[in-house]
Amino acid sequence: MNEKELQDTIIHITTLEQKYQALYPMWRRGQTLFNSLYALYPEIADGLRGTNVDPFHRDERYGDCWDHIIKMLKDDNDQV
User: Fold this and answer.
1) Cβ contact 37:69 at 8 Å
2) pTM of the full structure
3) With contact defined as beta carbons under 8 Å apart, do 76 and 1 qualify?
4) How many whole angstroms separate alpha carbon 53 and alpha carbon 18?
5) Residue of 35, 36, 38, 28 lying closest to 60 (CA atoms)
6) I want to staple 65 with a disulfide (CB 3.0 to 4.6 A). Which of 12, 55, 73, 77 is the partner?
7) Per-residue pLDDT reduced to its tens digit, 23-51
């Protein structure tokens, strides 16, 4: 994945994250990120589930989760 594709993917995730936040304001930030990621890239979300970067129940993992998502997207491209 080149840098443009990576940026487009990040925008895709964050756009859905913003839509979900508007639709479901009761969702926490980490929950919203995880659900957005799962809707678009379930294989990446499943790889995060239950790990020390899973933000679903712990919002403080939000930044670490994004770091991990970006790494997985870059690593996935390296394997193609």
Assistant:
1) yes
2) 0.89
3) yes
4) 20
5) 28
6) 55
7) 999 999 999 999 999 999 999 999 999 99
Q: Is 66 in contact with 34 (CB distance < 8 Å)?
A: no
Looking up tokens 């996935």, which residue turns up?
Answer: 76
**Letter for the amino acid at 69?**
I
Buried-state track 43-55, b at ≥16 Cβ within 10 A, e below 16? ebbebbeeeebbb
Contact between residue 34 and residue 62 where contact means Cβ atoms under 8 Å apart = no
Per-residue H/E/C for the chain = CCHHHHHHHHHHHHHHHHHHHHHCCCCCHHHHHHHHHHHHCHHHHHHHCCCCCCCCCCHHHHHHHHHHHHHHHHHHHHHC
